[in-house]
Amino acid sequence: MNTINRDINQLLIVSITPYFLEKQAFWFEENLQKILDARHSQSFFEDNIIFLSLTNFGVGEKAKKSHTKVNSPKLVRDEQKGDIVSFSQFLRKLDEMGYEKVFKVAEPGEFSQRGGIIDVFPINMMNAVRLDFLGNEVDSIKLLDIHPVKSAAQSAAVSSETGQFNGVKIDDSQSQDNWWKKSRDILKKRLKSQKLFSELKGLKSGDYLVHLDHGIGQFIGFEEFQISNDKKEKYYILQYAQEDKLYVPVGLERKLSRYIGFHDPKISRLGSSLWQKTKGKVKEEVEKLAKELLHLYAQKETAERAPYIEDKELEEQFILGFAFQETPDQMQAMEDIKNDLAKAKPMDRIVCGDVGFGKTEIAMRAALLAVANNRQTAIMCPTTILANQHFNSFKKRFEKLPVRIALLSRLQTKPDQKKIIKDLEEGKIDIIIGTHKLLSKDIKFNNLQLLIIDDEQKFGVKQKERLRQLKASLDVLSLSATPIPRTIYLALSSLKNISLMQTPPSGRQAIKTEVLAYNKKTIKKIINKELKRKGQIYFLHNRVQSIEAKAEELKELLALNEVEGCPKAKISLIHGRMPEKKLLKIMDDFQKEKTNVLVATTIIENGLDLPNVNTIIIEDSTRLGLSQAHQIRGRVGRSGTKSFAYFMYDERNLTPLVKARLKALEDAQELGAGYRIAIRDLELRGAGNILGKEQSGAINKIGLNLYSQMISESIEKFRN
Q1: Beta strands in 102-177 (DSSP E)
Q2: Does one domain contain both 657 and 696?
Q3: For the chain, which has fewer Cβ within 10 Å, the N-terminal or C-terminal residue?
Q4: pTM across the whole model
């Protein structure tokens, strides 16, 4: 049972918004009257505060003993207005202001309800409070001895004039300041993660959603209600057990997230305490896990290096060479990276954005910042083709700047490789681009500080950690269109920082995606449709042993094109076992449109940027993982031309998992769907494999999104 400190006669509760989270504790005491006055002219304050004042204060106990309501204190917004706020209105307002319903209040931003008693921890106070309702009236408001940290015990918000608030003397102001700042940081992080997780695009009837306060329900549609003569409001409708329904206003999605687990979840009735108890138990487990994760990452957490200093003039000169208009997400991602590099703590950030959304430009600008600080950058690519493409792109963008760029791969002769390695060690190279060859033991850097990993899901954990081991303070920037589950999990759980790039470049169109049974006549029709508009086609056949036979089969299928009045099909093929110089020659011919149909293995999935290729046929899509299929789909649609992706299948290979995978691709056709695909991939592959099977039970009870939010908050809480 919580210890009660004493009665108070008025109480201010403010919403969990960035505006209030920026304020110090004493600000609310000093500006109380201004806040109250502002409600009459500014809707923000009307919507985002609750002010409680007890009339006839001091007769509450007497009224309680006599069981009369005549002199019972009333709950009002302020004594001048005299508006009585009902019990249900109060609960709804707490919900709308972002407070989370829990079984037992322990942290700022939480509230609990047991009958007519509500405990709430306002974010503008250092104590929780208890409100005792009698029907729609409040009998008392009491301070509770609930403090998130022991150092904060017996404390409350500080008044700059008296050193007290609500009569409680501050004993350790430094501890209070530290706790106040920490709790604010956690709440800011929570707001950001709630926004991240409440991405509800493409919601369909029957989908499971998690409401932070009420648990897992099934979305059944939207409904509009007339709120007043001139105002309608739209609501999400969630159905719970025994046909209980919850109505969530559109605009308050921050408390909703998609349910991701291993199977359909158990749904309980609304209003039961089961959900709060379940959340509480999972939170205890999560806090243990958070401590373990922090221990694993301790070395990275304690490493430091000199902060980067921006060179505005050099940056402006470089930006002038960018031929496109930056998207808002690109600008935000770059701002995130600059903020990371301005700190002494090494960066570990993942930039997640669909193919063609401008991740390479972000990598270039980050490398420029390293060059401006006389630090070397290594860019690691999964294939020679991609490394070569990046090398050409970087050389072109940096050609007017005194930046030394080199490529290290199997394309160079042995003497050339030795020269590059020597120059790298002597500091004569600023940016080195290469494959996993950069991990070779004979390679030594002069002053490596920034590691950029492109298509990071193609590298194993050991490969990625190899360079980290060389230097604990290394800054790491990972680029990915579809992060593998473990990576996305760590990103969501605060061990990595994540920047999402979901805004497509101007003029970009979504890729029309169709899933259909394999049929030669259909293939011929698809190819000729693209050839007639002078475009090019990828044909994916993912078996090296039979790829030549498949190319011959297509030649026969399209042999009569010219007779039938269709453009001639000029077919070439590539696969990963070819000599690399031959492979690059075939790709160069295709890029120059000397050929128009390229039969290929999955070697094409990594970063190729050919704007005239706008149709892709995947011959047997049942063999591809979801993230890989999405990555391959992104090889087309690199320009403003309408593009098409055809995922074909053999009926004999259609398992339930394959069906779910193909359906996910069809459902996520819109631009910027890579992040959603990664989350869905995580679900299909089993979220419990991320850190171990022992987490799967907890994830299943509350869903992966809420589980990840809890880990994120717990890590922030224990980080120091």
Answers
A1: 110-114, 117-120, 129-134, 137-144, 164-165, 168-169
A2: no
A3: N
A4: 0.63
